[in-house]
Amino acid sequence: VEFISNEMKKVTNNKNYRFKIESKDEFQFLSENINQMLDELEELNQNNISLLKENVISERKMLEAQFNPHFLYNTLETIRVATYYDTELANKLILNLNTILRYSISKMNEVAAIKTDMLYIKNYLEICKERFERFTFDITIDEQTEEFLIPKLLILPIVENSMKYGFRDRRDLHLSINIVRTGESLTIQISDNGGGIDDSTLVKVNSNVFKKSGNHHGLYNAKRRLLLMYPNSYFKVKSPGEHTTVIMKIRE
Predict the structure, then answer these.
(1) Is residue 202 a contact partner of residue 244, using CB atoms and an 8 Å limit?
(2) How far apart are CA 233 and CA 250, in angstroms?
(3) 187 contacts 180 by C-beta, under 8 angstroms
(4) pTM over 0.90, yes/no
(5) Which listed residue, of 43, 53, 194, 202, carries a Cα 20 to 30 Å from 136's Cα?
(6) What is the rounded CA–CA span in Å between residue 214 and residue 192?
(7) What CA–CA distance (Å, rounded) separates 186 from 141?
(8) Three-state helix/strand/coil letters over the chain
(9) What pLDDT, in 10s, does the model give residues 7-50?
(10) 192, 166 contact by CB (below 8 A)
(11) Which one, of 138, 147, 158, 171, lies nearest residue 237 by Cα?
(12) Alpha carbons 72 and 63: distance in angstroms, whole number
């Protein structure tokens, strides 16, 4: 019995260890059954790990695939109107939209360098600038961040969220994107002056159990994708007064 107890301790310290008893009695029979049970448990554990990985990949794919249909509809409507009075503008919008759509549905990479991803975010914002006369934006990117990898179009749902809620309260919406790198960390800040977020919503968004329900799906999608790729990252939303700032700090 003491020998079996010692063997169990070895299994605890090494999941691949198996009992080694050759006594040709009931203890050997017992050890063989324990070894069989350990093999079955290990197989179940590996199956569960594989299933969890598949679920994570599936969820990541689902989050990546989401693209605001209202933006697509409104952009096509803007293009339709532009064709009557400014064909050059219509062509520009079509090229920008085509570039964004091709990039968003591309399955070649799940991640992208900051400099690549921001090209498409800029195309998106240029389209928004044509749609809304008083809309302005600025993008500041530290050169040290350009090759840093992030989930593809990570920032887009946050930008969409700012546009959706910002224009409810004002026409002169301004959006600012600032990306800097400090050591091994990357900090992304997306700010707008669109009226702010109420305290109860802020508590929900910043909670560790923030779920996809009600409004602010864009914030949920960005937070989930960020934490799936970089589990030790930081995601915080602040809203002093009429301004809202989403802060993502990514740690490699």
Answers:
(1) no
(2) 5
(3) yes
(4) no
(5) 202
(6) 21
(7) 11
(8) CHHHHHHHHHHHHCCCCCCCCCCCCHHHHHHHHHHHHHHHHHHHHHHHHHHHHHHHHHHHHHHHHCCCHHHHHHHHHHHHHHHHHCHHHHHHHHHHHHHHHHHHHCCCCCEEEHHHHHHHHHHHHHHHHHHCCCCEEEEEECHHHCCCEEECCCCHHHHHHHHHHHCCCCCCCEEEEEEEEECCEEEEEEEECCCCCCHHHHHHHCCCCCCCCCCCHHHHHHHHHHHHHCCCCEEEEECCCCCEEEEEEEEC
(9) 777 777 777 777 777 777 777 777 778 778 888 777 777 766 66
(10) yes
(11) 158
(12) 17
**Tokens of residue 226, six digits:** 């960020």
pLDDT in tens, 206-248: 887 666 555 666 777 788 878 877 888 889 999 988 889 999 9
Residue count of the chain, please give it.
252
Name the residue type at position 206: N
First CA to last CA distance, the chain: 48
The type of residue at 75 is T
HSE, CB side, 13 Å, CA atoms: give it for residue 97: 21
- Please answer whether residues 38 and 30 qualify as being in contact, where contact means their C-beta atoms are separated by less than 8 angstroms: no
What's the token pair of residue 12?
């605890």
